[in-house]
Amino acid sequence: MHDTITMSATLSLTNQFLIAMPSLADPNFSQSVTYICEHNQEGALGIVINHPLDIQLSEVLQHMNIEAQTPAILNRPVFLGGPLQRERGFVIHSPIGAWDSVLKIADIGVASSRDILEAIARGTGPKHTLIALGYAAWGPGQLEKELASNDWLNGPASASVLFDLPFDLSFNLLREQRWHAAAALSGVDLNRLSNDVGHA
Q1: Model's pTM, two decimal places?
Q2: 126, 93 Cβ separation under 8 angstroms
């Protein structure tokens, strides 16, 4: 089973999901799903998409002095994208737009500029969005070592997991639903994995 659930670490994981194994105890990444934005010989960068913070988009907009003209978006959750630079915001979105700062990854964009939040507040932003504060990063070879240690699964990213699964769930339900859904894309049932798989 080990060989079927972990892809070769020599492949780029850009535009893939990095899914925490049940045994991963790091509180920053326990039961996490991370969207990998960049992965090359210099390391990797990603945004956790299933750890909601105890704040809503309204608070982020208020902090940035952006007035929302579409009240329906105010109660959208904001996710903890990772342990680094938690004051920095990212908007994973589709379709890709011409924002001041946007990283294009296949048909997904990751924007980090004020203009996309202003557009969202006006109701003219992208159709699909996920908003996060902070990000995760790995140095050269670090992620490869963690994959080899069976800390993570990796598999294809999916817009349906990013954008279509319900946001209006409790913290635990939202986290677990996205965690299981991301693993299922690779044919993995996390409930059937032992907590010590790969460490016997």
Answers
A1: 0.89
A2: yes
